[in-house]
Amino acid sequence: MTDVLLSVEIAAPAGTTWLALTDWARQGEWMLGTEVEVLAGNGRSVGSRLAAFTGVAGVGFTDTMEIIGWEPPVRCTVRHLGTLVRGTGAFHVQDKGPQRSVFIWSEQLELPFGLVGRLGWPLAKPAFTLGLKYSLHRFAKFAERYSVGA
After folding, report:
1. What is the distance between the alpha carbons of residues 10 and 110, in angstroms, rounded to a whole number?
2. N- to C-terminal Cα distance for the chain?
3. Which of 26, 22, 3, 9 is nearest to 89 (CA)?
4. CB 103 within 8 A of CB 140
5. Which InterPro entries did the record assign (predicted)?
6. What is the signed CA dihedral for 80, 81, 83, 84, rounded to 10 degrees?
């Protein structure tokens, strides 16, 4: 297992940040190389399933997730069900005042490929973290201008 924990401050109310975060169909507007769709359920309740394809020009992988915790407007917890990505993730929004919030992304992931994955993770982690930081910076801008149905 490996843990990933990153956060970004957002100049938007927590409720707006939550709505932007859980607008799964628009996640591709801020998440690097990723498109998300709701596979089952409404995407806003425990038991809903999501599929996130990450890649370029159709080459990549799909991360299938099930929502296992739904506590709007504070936390969404998912279980990764795929063969490549396994473990749990949480998206947490902290209220910091009328026009401020913090988005916290945390993951507890089982590394794929056994020993090779464990040995290779120290080499892959910096690029993974850099991509995630870039995406969180884009998310902050997305949330700050977010409007439902836009």
Report:
1. 30
2. 38
3. 3
4. yes
5. Polyketide_cyclase/dehydratase (IPR019587), START-like_dom_sf (IPR023393)
6. -10
Q: What average pLDDT does this structure show over 57-63?
A: 88
Threshold 0.70, pTM exceeds: yes
pLDDT range class, residue 150, cuts 50, 70, 90: low
- Residues 9, 12, 18, 19: is their CA dihedral positive or negative? negative
d(CA 12, CA 143): 7
**Residue 46: count of CB within 10 angstroms of its CB:** 13
Interacting residues of 123 by C-beta distance below 8 A, sequence separation 6+: none
Scan for tokens 């801008």, then name that residue: 141
β-pairing, 34-40 vs 86-95, is: unpaired
Mean pLDDT of 91-119: 92
Q: Specify the DSSP element, H or E, that contains 71.
A: strand 59-71
Domain segments of the chain: what residues? 2-32+67-144
Q: Is 121 left (phi over 0), alpha (psi -120 to 50) or beta?
A: alpha
